[in-house]
Amino acid sequence: MPLVVWVLALLLLLLLRLACWARRRISTARRPPQRLWQGHPLPLRALAVLGSGGHTTEMLGLLAGFDQGRYHFQFVLADTDTTSLKKVGAARPDLVEDTSRFHAVTRSREVGQSWSSSAVSTARAFLECLTIVWAIRPQVLLVNGPGTCVPVVAAALFFELVFGRPVVLIFTESFCRVKSLSLTGRMLYALADVFVVHWPALVERYPKAQYCGVLM
């Protein structure tokens, strides 16, 4: 069989795989909750992304609602983030007892950084996240909007697409987003399995969103 036929057949298979993955993953409508890990041995491997400033404070509030016996969390933060570890240590000293649970990656974009150089730093962060996500194999990914979460999510979904390693993506919008979504929220809206907002007005504009009260 000519090489070109093999190449075309491979491309067709890849396109079919992408179409099947996209049909399951991408949606702007709320879906019934998945039972993906029901009956799976506990604790589940979970990965959360910390962001400097209010993002980490909000994430700590979210983590308080997770049964630590059911979820073993590891964390990703930007390498220039000098505050998140201090905040976690002050609020949850149990989480910083094992420093191997924290993984630093290149910050995707610093405040005021040009978009051209941001593309380079984001690509570098994505490659670093591929290594981290491959090693952790997260079953649950919890993010709440910092730019650092974008390459982490991209790495997790890449492995889901290519290697069939499923992950439940939970996105919680920032408390300060009252009438509109953040840039990260708009990027991940159609990809998240669960999309949570803190204000009921957002549910009217974004039907996939779920309002569960203030979760902090």
UniProtKB/TrEMBL annotation:
Segment forming the signal sequence: 1-22
Stated name of the protein: UDP-N-acetylglucosamine transferase subunit ALG14
Recorded topology in the membrane: Single-pass membrane protein
UniProtKB keywords: Endoplasmic reticulum, Membrane, Signal, Transmembrane, Transmembrane helix
Location(s), subcellular: Endoplasmic reticulum membrane
Taxonomy, superkingdom: Eukaryota
Family: Belongs to the ALG14 family.
Annotated Gene3D superfamilies: Glycogen Phosphorylase B
Principal subcellular localization: endoplasmic reticulum
Organism: Prorocentrum cordatum
